[in-house]
Amino acid sequence: MGVYVDDLQACVRSKKWPYGYACHLVADYVWELHYFAGRMRLHPAWFQDQSNLPHYDLTKNMRLLAVKLGAVEIDREKFGELIRKYRSRSAGN
How far, in Å, CA of 23 to CA of 37, rounded? Predict the structure, then answer.
């Protein structure tokens, strides 16, 4: 079990997301992701589950907080592994 953050990447700014960079907070299990997000005081409405992998988007400062609280920093390869693992689990349901 684990909670992870990928690298910050440039993103398109919008009214909903006025930040220039973002990353993803993900976990091995959704319950684990919600628990960790609660520790970070992330609003439940920010949860995104209509994507390849359930996640929360984080700003640079929130990423730093996540790492301070124990999230593991991962690269794109590990992020891809998590997506494949999630898809295979979801297909088994």
Answer: 14
